[in-house]
């Protein structure tokens, strides 16, 4: 029912695409991260709670909102959207045609998240799953542990008269961290790339603690503040105004010592909006699917493991990147006029894709498509 075309994942009987990476007439969008929601499609269909994000990021688009669980039909295919637990408005796309059910899950996580609806297992025959952290080494601590660690780090810095600069992706991760902060420690300051998204979350009814722009906080108070900013703000002129500060980065990649080292920050907090290995496995099992299609991440490892465990599994080669890395270059730099940071391996992977895309667009490199590398795990199995 679903195949990969040059433009993206394509529902054959329905005649529409899911998260296409090239402009198409009809697109079902799983969520607002840049590698899934692109400009230029004729018509968008997305979960209602995510419409505000899409408009914020894509501008004036023709978009139809669907409540979670609500059904619409297109060319004989019944379409419904179900929470993916990834970010506000993220959804899995359920497709039903002639008794056959497919679910395309976009990006997802199974752990709870105060800023979006929880992942809902949907029964299907074929499940399309991401594999960003699809290696057995990826296992997350319960998020409360991470929030406690972040608050303890912030409190210690505040006591020592130092600002805490928390670098993370502006859409999703930033708001999830905000939801876990203890506002009694000090002021919460948000970068210009983060605050507009906070507004969308609040409008959608997601409770976030009070936040301020840096210009609204006086210098003395900044020394007790936590500052939430996109990765591109790290080491930028914008960050220098905080004087002596401690910086940290929050990402699933922070599990890897090599990634922490390359980031060059004081602290790495392991927090991801993607499922870890046990999460991926439990999500797949819960669908009851016999066939699994693996996309973006550790495709060969997951496919092999699933086949060994009785699934009919294969990979789809897609253009989805690491949504976290993409935000770094785009949102932050645009909002505050700062230069993007030195690319880290994850960002580089994205850059390779962008380059490949540009080359393809110019008609020069159709056969040089680059595979994503599963870069860090090999050297960091002790992480
Ligand atoms: Zn995403
Ligand atoms: Zn993604």
From TrEMBL:
Q: What class of enzyme is it?
A: hydrolase
This entry's Enzyme Commission designation comes to 3.1.-.-
Q: Which keywords label this protein? A: Exonuclease, Hydrolase, Ligase, Nuclease
Annotated region Disordered: where?
326-383
Molecular-function annotations in GO: exonuclease activity; ligase activity
Origin superkingdom: Bacteria
| Bias (Low complexity) ranges | 328-350
The record ties this protein, via InterPro entries, to: MBL, RibonucZ/Hydroxyglut_hydro, Xnuc_lig_assoc
Task: List where Acidic residues composition bias occurs.
Answer: 373-383
Q: What is this protein called?
A: Ligase-associated DNA damage response exonuclease
Species, as recorded: Pseudoduganella flava
């Amino acid at each position: 029912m679903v195949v990969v075309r040059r433009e993206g994942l394509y529902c054959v009987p329905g005649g529409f695409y899911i998260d296409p990476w090239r402009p198409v007439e009809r697109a079902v969008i799983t969520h607002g991260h840049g590698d899934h929601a692109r400009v230029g499609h004729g018509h968008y269909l997305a979960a209602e709670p995510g419409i505000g994000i899409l408009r914020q990021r894509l501008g004036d688009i023709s978009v139809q909102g669907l409540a979670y669980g609500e059904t619409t039909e297109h060319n004989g295919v019944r379409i419904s959207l179900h929470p993916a637990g990834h970010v506000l408005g993220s959804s899995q796309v359920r497709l039903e045609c002639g008794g056959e059910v497919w679910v395309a899950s976009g990006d997802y996580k199974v752990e709870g998240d105060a800023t979006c609806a929880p992942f809902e297992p949907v029964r299907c025959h074929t499940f399309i799953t991401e594999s960003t952290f699809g290696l057995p080494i990826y296992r997350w601590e319960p998020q409360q542990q991470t929030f406690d660690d972040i608050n303890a780090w912030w409190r210690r810095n505040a006591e020592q008269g130092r600002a805490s600069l928390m670098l993370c992706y502006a859409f999703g991760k930033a708001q999830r961290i905000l939801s876990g902060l203890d506002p009694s420690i000090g002021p919460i300051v948000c970068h210009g790339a983060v605050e507009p998204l906070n507004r969308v979350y609040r409008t959608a009814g997601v409770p976030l603690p009070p936040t301020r722009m840096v210009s609204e906080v006086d210098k003395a108070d900044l020394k007790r503040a936590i500052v939430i900013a996109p990765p591109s703000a790290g080491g930028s002129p914008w960050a220098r105004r905080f004087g002596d500060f401690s910086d940290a980065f929050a990402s699933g990649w922070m599990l890897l010592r090599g990634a922490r080292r390359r980031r060059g920050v004081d602290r790495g907090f392991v927090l991801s909006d993607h499922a870890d290995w046990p999460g991926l496995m439990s999500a797949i099992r819960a669908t009851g699917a016999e066939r699994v299609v693996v996309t973006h991440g550790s495709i060969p490892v997951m496919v092999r493991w699933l086949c060994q465990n009785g699934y009919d599994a294969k990979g789809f080669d897609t253009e989805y990147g690491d949504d976290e890395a993409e935000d770094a270059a785009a949102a932050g730099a645009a909002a505050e006029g700062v230069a993007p940071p030195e690319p880290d391996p994850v960002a580089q992977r994205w850059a390779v894709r962008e380059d490949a895309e540009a080359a393809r667009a110019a008609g020069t490199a159709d056969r040089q498509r680059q595979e994503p590398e599963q870069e860090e795990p090999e050297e960091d199995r002790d992480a």
